[in-house]
Amino acid sequence: MLTHHATNTAPSNAQVVTKAVLRAADQLEIPNTILARVLGVSEPTVSRMRKHGLTLSTSDKSFELAILFIRLYRSLDAIVGGDPNVARAWLRNVNTALDNSKPLDKVQTITGLMHVIDYLDSRRAVL
């Protein structure tokens, strides 16, 4: 369940994760339609997250998917040395290691998201 928070106290885990996933999507220039598919929510829900402070519920699958997307973003950011242009290009170009698919297409399914994360993790841990 999604919730709306408007308090002046320390941010909750749900607020932090929601804000982080939106910032990651912004940095990677991921449109709402694609972010909605990644998170398993509707596009209007993503819009409400952006405009009205709607937060992902910690008990929902969308919260877990948001954490995975943030993990993908952090791994990719580390690999490209913090260059958002390189990260954006990597997501949008065909990758032979990912079944000749664009990573941005793959991450729209749970299996594909996990595959891309596993690939990025393996690239970060090169011995």
UniProtKB/TrEMBL annotation:
The UniProt record lists the Antitoxin Xre-like helix-turn-helix domain at: 14-71
Q: Which GO terms describe its molecular function?
A: DNA binding
* Ranges where the Antitoxin Xre/MbcA/ParS-like toxin-binding domain occurs: 75-124
Coiled coil residues, start to end:
none
Q: Where is the signal peptide?
A: none
* Name of protein: DUF2384 domain-containing protein
- The species is Azospirillum brasilense
